[in-house]
Amino acid sequence: GNSVTQMEGPVTLSEEAFLTINCTYTATGYPSLFWYVQYPGEGLQLLLKATKADDKGSNKGFEATYRKETTSFHLEKGSVQVSDSAVYFCALLTGGFKTIFGAGTRLFVKA
Amino acid sequence: GAGVSQTPSNKVTEKGKYVELRCDPISGHTALYWYRQSLGQGPEFLIYFQGTGAADDSGLPNDRFFAVRPEGSVSTLKIQRTERGDSAVYLCASSQGGRNRGADTQYFGPGTRLTVL
């Protein structure tokens, strides 16, 4: 079946450090891939997405590239800020209507 | 323009009771989703509505769970004979409902935290 695996947290970084959160997926067909973010006390919101292989999604300095050959969609940011502290969810959507989410990775950024 | 709203924000009930959770989607959004999020986990799909009809209810865990959207806007998730294992945050999301679902951004509500004692 379809599934998403992302690195376990928490991830703790100092401000301005480089961030990578790994995400790999298993899916039939050609899924669309997403990163969602949940800031403390707020609802889940879409961070970025990519709908086909080799597409790069980007937003707020975050990037992720849809790699079909490695079935991956790793999230990266060159210089994190304290305000990036949140839980990040990788997700996929295949031909139907079900979005499948990973378990989430909590990021703490220290000043 | 208001986002997706959910009421109540918190619900505490006793095992065996009936509960209703409400979702008000963004105005004009034809697609509506319900998810359940247990502690430390990602959201788990429950049901999807396109307009008034449930296009996919395969995520509902059993027949104690039911959802309606009679006028294609507000939706209610109903849980009968609640069990302690139903305790979770129930999330609602809506989207425009365009044909290209891969590009269809879902907007999430703040959730209802359900606690079954």
Describe the 3D structure.
The complex is a heterodimer of chains A (111) and B (117). Chain A contains no helices and 12 strands. Chain A has strands at 3-6, 11-14, 19-21, 23-26, 32-38, 45-50, 56-59, 62-65, 75-77, 86-93, 99-101, 105-110. In chain A, strand 5 and strand 6 form a beta hairpin. The radius of gyration of chain A is 13 Å and the shape is globular. Chain A starts with a strand and ends with a strand. Chain B is an all-beta fold. Chain B has strands at residues 5-7, 10-13, 19-24, 31-37, 44-50, 53-56, 65-68, 75-79, 88-95, 107-108, 112-116. The radius of gyration of chain B is 14 Å and the shape is globular. The model of chain B has no long low-confidence stretch (mean pLDDT 92). The interface between A and B is medium-sized, with 22 and 27 residues.
Compact summary:
Chain A is mainly β. Chain A has strands at residues 3-6, 11-14, 19-21, 23-26, 32-38, 45-50, 56-59, 62-65, 75-77, 86-93, 99-101, 105-110. The chains are: A mainly beta (111), B mainly beta (117).
Low-confidence stretches of chain A: none
Protein structure class of chain A = mainly beta
Percentage of residues assigned to helices of chain B: under 10%
Instruction: Report the principal-axis shape of chain B.
Output: globular
- Number of DSSP strands of chain B? 11
| Beta-strand residue percentage of chain A | over 45%
Helix content estimate of chain A:
under 10%
The SSE string of chain A, one letter per element, is EEEEEEEEEEEE
Radius of gyration of chain A: 13 Å
Task: Give the helices and strands of chain B as they follow along the chain.
Answer: EEEEEEEEEEE
Instruction: Report strand % of chain B.
Output: over 45%
Number of helices of chain A: 0
Describe the largest sheet of chain B.
7 strands, mixed
- Gap between N and C termini of chain A, in Å? 41 Å
